[in-house]
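Field reference: sequence -> structure
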Amino acid sequence: MAEDPFRILVVCTGNVCRSPVAGAVLRDALAEIAPGAFEVESAGTRALVGEPAQPEAADVASSLGSTLEGFRARQLTEEMVGRADLVLTLAHRHRDAVLQLQPALKRTFTVREFARILAALPLDATEQDLVRRGRPRRAWRHLVGRVWEVKATAGSATHGDPEDEVVDPYRLGPEVWAQMTDELVPALEVIFGRADVLARG
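Structure field:
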C-alpha cells in the first residue's frame, strides 16, 4: 500500500504574503519532482481569514512559475500542526506560535534555518534507500530528524538567528517585496533541490 504524502505546513502571520508564496512554490516544484509524494499547505498565526493573497504575492508566485488563483487565507490550528511532518515558518515568532499549539519542536524550523542546515547535510544512504523502496515520507521524516540533531547540537534549539527569517512585506513597497523574494527563493531551492536528488536515486 502506498504511503501517505509527506506533509509540509508553511506558516507566517496573515497568510497573505510570505507563506502563500512559499507554499505554492514548494507545492508545484515538489509535485513536478515527485508526484503524489508531498502535500503542502499554509496558514497564518493571525490570518486574514478568507482574504486572497496580496496582489504582490500573486505576482511573485507567478514570476516563479506558480499561481495563487483561488487562494484564501487560513488560520493556523492545532490540527494543522498535528498532521504536518514538517512545519516551516517565516520568522521565529511563528515557530513560537506553532509550539504553543503543539509540542512540535523537532519538526518546526524557519524555512531559511531548515535550508541552511539541509544544504550542509550530506546525502544519507538510508534516505536514498527509502525513496527507492517507495517510502519518501519515511525518508523525509528521517531527514527532518537529522536536521533537528544538527540544530540541537549547535545549541540553537531555542534561540534563533535573525538571518534565518524572511522579511514581512505586508503593505510595504516593492523593494521589501524584492527582499522577501531574495531571502525566500534560495531556501526553497535547497529544499526541492534535495527532493530532486533523492527522487533520482
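Note: The two ends are 21 Å apart (CA to CA).
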